[in-house]
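Quiz preparation item.
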């Protein structure tokens, strides 16, 4: 998912409380903006680099600088939220950015775009890698019906907040980067709501974040991160795997939710187990387990597209995500 705004800059919304000269609910806004930034950084790091923009971001030091700034902002505004685990994970995040800074200085400083692309292919390959697939539906689903159900639930979240996949990003809606950028969007939307809206709208977006972490990314990202550590072995993506794991622990503690993370036994690489009595000529694994196959096999494509025009008409402006 790529939101149509600069990947590097988040403009902090500012609302002054009349007669005080102070920012409305400043600590809560600061926390939301810090979380939004960190979700965006992790999301962007996992996408295949199509151009030099992300490489420049790394080599200039802005990636690490923005990460540290977000962590410092969270630390100042945390006020005990999330308990000792949140504080511990913030410290671990800082160490990960130190490692990334050293990696940039020692290895990445003279890289060209082809080098970063080659490193991404080494870890994630050109097709869905079985060692660490960045797709939620490959975790915890026995057959294609389970995968389609998860896809439908994810699509429901995106639709509810008026975002859709960008045509410029050729990824599925259950890709790690897409789901993390959706959380970036929700956290940023929270910061805006705290500045401009009432308690009801704030609660809606906070509840959505809690539910998405508990039912989606909080369940599969921890296992994916462990798999990525093993696959990458060293370098940028190993450091990002450690960072992603610590970040999910932090945010679950911060939000006060307890996801039930998948174990290694819940990972079923490219399998297709049809329900009893059902047979299919073409298994999903034969064609890369693509979203279109998953949805078409169970008739879910028409469900997701049903009344699309009416939804857009009733939901107001739709962002491109």
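Solution:
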């Amino acid at each position: 998912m790529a939101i149509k705004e600069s990947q590097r800059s988040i403009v902090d919304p500012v609302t002054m409380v009349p007669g005080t000269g102070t920012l409305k609910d400043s600590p809560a806004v600061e926390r939301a903006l810090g979380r939004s930034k960190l979700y965006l950084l992790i999301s962007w790091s996992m996408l295949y680099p199509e151009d030099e923009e992300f490489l420049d971001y790394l080599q200039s030091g802005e990636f690490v600088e923005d990460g540290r700034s977000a962590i410092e902002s969270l630390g100042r505004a945390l006020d005990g939220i999330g308990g000792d685990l949140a504080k511990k994970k913030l410290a671990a995040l800082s160490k990960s950015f130190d490692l990334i800074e050293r990696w940039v200085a020692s290895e990445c400083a003279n890289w060209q775009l082809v080098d970063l692309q080659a490193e991404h292919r080494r870890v994630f390959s050109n097709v869905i890698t079985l060692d660490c697939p960045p797709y939620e539906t490959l975790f915890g689903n026995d057959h294609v019906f389970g995968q389609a159900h998860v896809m439908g639930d994810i699509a429901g979240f995106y639709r509810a907040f008026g975002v859709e996949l960008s045509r410029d990003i050729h990824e599925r809606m259950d890709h790690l980067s897409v789901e993390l950028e959706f959380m970036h969007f929700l956290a940023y939307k929270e910061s805006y709501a705290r500045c401009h809206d009432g308690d009801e709208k704030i609660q809606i977006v906070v509840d959505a974040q809690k539910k998405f972490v508990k039912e989606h990314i909080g369940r599969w990202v921890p296992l994916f991160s462990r798999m990525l550590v093993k696959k990458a072995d060293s370098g940028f993506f190993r450091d990002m795997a450690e960072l992603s794991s610590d970040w999910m622990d932090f945010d679950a503690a911060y939000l006060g939710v307890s996801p039930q993370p998948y174990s290694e036994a819940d990972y079923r690489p490219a399998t297709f187990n049809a329900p009893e009595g059902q047979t299919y000529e073409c298994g999903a694994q034969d064609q890369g387990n693509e979203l279109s196959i998953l949805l078409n096999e169970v008739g879910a494509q028409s469900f997701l597209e049903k009344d699309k025009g009416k939804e857009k008409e009733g939901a107001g402006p739709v962002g491109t995500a």
